[in-house]
Write a structure and sequence with these properties.
The chain is an all-alpha fold. The protein has one domain. It contains 11 helices and no strands. Helix 1 crosses helix 5 and helix 2 packs across helix 5.
Length: 244
């Protein structure tokens, strides 16, 4: 646990020293909401639904950057090889990194919620905010495994475009930008099986008050197991110096 907390502090301070990362990752979801979603938040229920969607989108972006792009970039640095020689387990490194990612994701969500409260008639209790945040922290874990697979297999140059392609596609297909019933009919059928759809459906339970769907939780867990398996395979492949 001590090693994990050291990794957490190191990663947190490292990211705080990068203004472009702090501003870019924290501000972008709020700007994206104002440009594309705020005009559709005409009722409290619509505002609540969009808040849950964009909060999930904010967490997803932080996770993909931390475990996809940042991990791929880190592999090319001397520190990565030095870290391998230290008596620190992979579990401690992962735990410290996920804690740092969740801190930034939570701060991004807070900024987003402030913007939504100012610009819409959102109607949600503080307790629901807290439950939504705790849920998103826990439910982001499967996507961390997917992003690890990208970070392990990709080079520093290819990680960003590949991460963006997967992250943006999953966001659209899962209904994080546009409610699923507003998607084209052919896309709606695909959306029902997307991990991001399962991810956001439970977020809507907390933000809007929709009925809790066990199917969504089980579906996200199933995808999480698959992504964990992929990350383990990616770790083995990366040890053989195969890079995309």
């Amino acid at each position: 646990m001590n090693n994990a907390m050291l990794i957490f502090k190191m990663k947190l301070f490292e990211l705080l020293r990068q203004p472009s990362y702090v501003v870019g990752t924290m501000v972008f979801p709020s700007l994206f909401f104002l440009f594309f979603a705020q005009p559709n938040a005409k009722t409290p229920q619509a505002a609540n639904l969009l808040m849950g969607s964009f909060a999930a989108y904010a967490f997803l972006g932080i996770i993909f950057f931390q475990f996809g792009v940042d991990l791929a970039n880190e592999k090319s640095r001397p520190w990565f090889r030095y870290q391998k020689s230290l008596p620190i387990s992979e579990g401690s490194i992962f735990f410290g990194r996920i804690l740092a990612a969740l801190v930034f994701a939570f701060l991004t969500e807070v900024l987003l919620i402030i913007v939504i409260n100012i610009s819409t008639e959102v109607d949600i209790s503080f307790l629901s905010y807290l439950r939504l945040s705790l849920y998103l922290c826990a439910a982001s874990l499967p996507f961390a495994f997917l992003a690890i697979s990208i970070g392990k297999l990709c080079t520093a140059k290819s990680a960003l475009p590949i991460s963006n392609m997967i992250y943006l596609s999953l966001s659209f297909l899962g209904g994080l930008w546009i409610p699923p019933n507003a998607l084209p009919e052919s896309i709606q059928r695909i959306s029902e099986w997307m991990p991001t759809r399962y991810f956001v459906e439970t977020a809507w339970h907390f933000s809007v008050g929709f009925d809790f769907q066990w199917k969504s939780l089980i579906g996200l867990l199933a995808w999480g197991i698959l992504f964990l398996f992929l990350s383990l395979i990616a770790s083995k492949i990366s040890g053989r110096k195969i890079r995309l």
